[in-house]
Amino acid sequence: MNGWVVLLWSFVAALVLIIAGIFGSLVVMGRISLFPETAPSVVPTPVETGVVDTNYSVMILNATPEEGLDAQMSDTLVNNGWAADTVFASDSESEDFATTTVYYVDAEDELAAIGLAGVIGGAEVRQSDFYAELNDTGAKQLTIVIGLDRTASAPETSDEAPAS
Question: What phi, psi does 32 have (nearest 5°)?
Fold first, then answer.
């Protein structure tokens, strides 16, 4: 029996040395880290959802060659709570505006612009005073410029942002 015990202990010792050798090799090669560094956690930034504020007047400019998009957009706003006399629709001088965009003038109007973009089914939101002179009512106003992305036959556009 003594021979079997020695053989068994020899087998166990060889197995321990093989496992230690494999583990040591993996540590040296960098496949196993004994003291792993904690990865910095990514904190998601909250996305502004905007506020739907029907107290704003809205100027809608159709900057596409397709007729009637401004009237459709006006109907959408009136059906979502805007008074018909606060929504103004017109054609733009341009007919090649790439992306539908909601413009606001003052920083405090940003959440209302984001909310309006959500009501119309999504649009870019930008701050600009370019359309401020169109506001002859003196009330708070947002401006929607309908782009080629809303036409039935929207052409492929470049990834560049449209100039305001």
Answer: -125, 130
Residue 3 has pLDDT above 90, yes or no: no
Structural domain includes residue 106: yes
Q: What is the pLDDT of residues 87-112, one digit of tens each?
A: 888 888 877 788 888 888 888 888 88
Beta-strand relationship, 101-104 and 87-91: unpaired
| Same domain, yes or no: 73 and 119 | yes
Could you give the CA distance from residue 155 to residue 164 in angstroms, rounded to a whole number? Answer: 20
Q: Rounded to 5 degrees, what are φ and ψ at 125? A: -125, 125
Domain tally for the chain?
Answer: 2
28 is in which domain, residue-wise?
1-36
The DSSP element (H or E) to which 15 belongs, if any, is: helix 2-29
**Order of strands, edge to edge, in the sheet holding 124-127?**
87-91, 57-62, 141-146, 101-104, 124-127
- Compute φ and ψ for 147, nearest 5 degrees: -105, 175
Q: Which amino acid is at 7?
A: L
Q: Note whether 92 and 135 are same-domain residues.
A: yes
Does the pTM exceed 0.70?
A: no
Task: Assign residue 131 the CATH number of its domain.
Answer: 3.30.70.2390
